[in-house]
Amino acid sequence: QQQQQHQAGGSAAASASSAASFLPPSAQKRAALLERNGGCTDRYLWSQDATSVSVHAFLPAGTKACDVTVRVNAGLRRIELATTDNPNLLSGELFGVIDEPAGGGAHGNDATHADDDDGLDWQVQDLPGDPQRRRLLSVTLAKKDLGGTGLVLWWRSFLKGDPEIDVTAIADRSARRQNDTRHFGDALRQAEEAFREKVKQGQVGMVID
Asked: Quick check: 72 and 78 in contact, CB under 8 A?
């Protein structure tokens, strides 16, 4: 049976106690933000919102963007992350469907960040407070719109086969539902008010109490 991931809930403060518990307290607050609505493993943190999903793979201290290779194949739903010292940093099948990036892979073109030249949004950043001074390779992917339906797929894991989270406990999922319900109610009230106004002006042949 799969072991449950540490799951990040709503605010960073609320989830900091469970976020990347193997990290020291000074690094857990930052880690909590990087696993919002997602989780953590010993290899990476991951987070998501309604439209995108991000992975933050641990790198040795001193790793630069020019040492990194990022490859994504949306059709096969695969991601491959590598460094010059570790060709198998992270690879596997993505849990969900993503949009095809403009470019299929890239090598970093400066010390910290690369995105526009390769169609992929990724960067190498520090993990503040980590006693090992590790860095993070962060990659953000756009979730595929499911036929323009507006439906949101909340991923249970970043890679298939990795420990899964309970998506029903995602704070942003509940907040989105409440927001959608509120917007629907506002639109319904506006439609009713407009209809009543038309009735008063004799534009509609019926009476409403």
From this structure: yes
